[in-house]
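Action item from last week, closing it out:
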Amino acid sequence: MHFPARVVAVLCLLSLSLTAQVSPTKAASTVVDSDSFLKSQLARARGPKRTVPEVEKLLSRMTLKEKVGQMTQLEIGMVSDGIDQDIRINPTKLRKAVVEYGVGSILNVKDEALPLERWHEIIKQIQQAAAESRLKIPILYGIDSIHGANYVKGSTMFPQPLGMAATWNPELMLKGSQITAAQTRAAGIPWNFSPVLDVGRLALWPRLYETFGEDPYLASVMGVAAVRGYEGDDVSSPQNVAASLKHYVGYSFPMSGTDRTPAMISEAAMWEYFLPSFAAAVKAGAHTVMVNSGDVNGIPGHINKYLLTDVLRGKLGFQGVVVSDWEDIKKLVRVHHVAVDEKEATRKAVLAGIDMSMVPSDYSFSDLLLALVQEGKVPMSRIDEAVRRILVLKWELGLFQDPLRGIAATPPSSAEGDQVALEAARESITLLKNSGNTLPLAKTARILVTGPTADSLIPLNNGWTYTWQGDRPRTYPTNELTILGAIKANASQANVAYVPGTAIDKEVDTAAAVAAAKTSDVVIACLGEWSYTETPGSITDLTLPEPQLRLVEQLATAGKPIVLVLAEGRPRIIHRIVGLANAIVLAANPGNQGGRAIAEVLFGDTNPSGRLPFTYPPAPNALLTYDHPAYQGSDQSFGLQAFHPEFAFGSGLSYTTYTYSDLKLSTAQLGPQGRLEVSVAIANTGQRAGKEVVQVYVSPHYASLTPPGKRLKRFAKVQLAPGESKALRFTLEPNDFGFYNSEGKLVIEESDFDVLVGGLKGALHVSGTSAEAAKK
């Protein structure tokens, strides 16, 4: 997709022209390098077309009512009866929606995942009804495939996006997204409401696990991987689906920390932190965008013309379809109070840039928009613009040629998908503490397993798993291992005892757990969260529930080593018990293969390589991100205490040791047209093979706006055998040392910087220049 010159500055944080080179001193193994990955993927991206001749002919034949119908999206309950596995299409309801109203899109389930054959029945009936309409325009069906095709029974469940971010491996993200796309399209569904590109900079937010963490560069790399995996080189392929970038933009930073509540984001922060991941995904070719349900700076996302039109289309160059979120045009009246009635809300939203309304449970949008156009309050040109985009999307998905495309294709087998999911789960597991080499455990040890997340697949998966909230045990497969099941499978079952100890927020049998601990060699306490998403997951305190904290405190009285396994979708605060634990393992919703991956790490069959994609807070009111101003890391006057995270962004331990050396910068002075070569050597100085994430940061000494202490600019995941070393070289450009000012413009000021890699530091002076000069 061609980008106008003004868009380049928005994408500068990615520095897509850069290359990172790896020179092995011994036999080479695969290196996942963020920069070369981005270059290769973006070079192949093809974004939405502006026009298609066949669409123009069709558009000229459409009535106003048919056009408005195409802009309408209904949930499946509007064309069906029954729920769960008893859902069935109601021909009368379906005909009203598709033939009478000409509805363009249908979405969702009611309320459980369905097997492929049921999806085929439903999709065939819907598309057959569309074929009986005057113009025979196919229906665009959409679904939330968040961490796999989670609404298609038998599909692979990958780690949630936060867990995928913990792998720091975009190749795994790409592979997982390809499998998700193929298994979704095999159901006859060509549109996926994913990925979530909201940057997770507020740990309390209940949708944190749906993000790729707190850093905009990491989120951009993983977001590009997701989009390219979903859409591929040809989005019409029976193995590909259209992606939807969510939730544009600022949704993830509510002041309260609870879902769908107001955010206050400055222009500088919007461009610096929240827009880069969307900008990158637009360049990666994403065909659709879903809008933020909340409001930013007092303006609800669904009527924010500046963000929806001026920025998204004007500055980012997006050409595809913008869809609302669930009932959000209606909510402009009853929640946001920015419109006197739904008719006024509809006018404002459409004029701001909404192409399709997820109404989704009545025909109000169609009726009201029809009246608004007839009254001259919404111009026909705006309707044609939106409908053109929707029809082009359907054309590019191949629906006009074959409305059932994908149904006849053979999706990746569950065995194939599960193997990729297992590898992703393995690489997502993050070892946060390991005092005295408590881990790995001997398989002959007498082990007590306790805690509320030990014996269920639910906390390994979280929401968007077979149902919206992921909370129905009967929907989960019976052949996958929980943490407890996997531990028993890896060790001698006779040596493994299990006592629940507590539920998530209620004591069950803590005393029995303590008694069992006394006769064990080691205690594995599985703590964390149950499932949730969106508003049901809102909480006001990140502290781990009291019964779980007390369980560990009581277990400590037994005097045995304690290993904490945290199965959670956000960092629940555990400061009170960190000192009581000998080892701490984080499993950020690793999916159905997570139990096996956790056990492999506990017993040393897998060397952990996960790294935190967020800052783990030590206290409820200590929710800073890693890129906070430098002064917040030091004690200040008047008693201001330095911020010390429980566990730092990018951190994670291994069962081997890595040594960094020979950090070299190609120049000490970087001018407007220059490039900086950063080279560093890394060696595995331990006794085990392992994977290390090499992270490159820049740290400004001063700027006209208070600068962050450091910012991630590059990373590479490197596999090293014992004794093996490699030399890596990264290239940085002036844009990597710039920032967005209060007007949302990129500036590169003269300043001194430190370049940080693996505990090493190099000094650099950057000459100031303009954003326009930096782009040349």
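Closing note: The chain has a mean pLDDT of 94.
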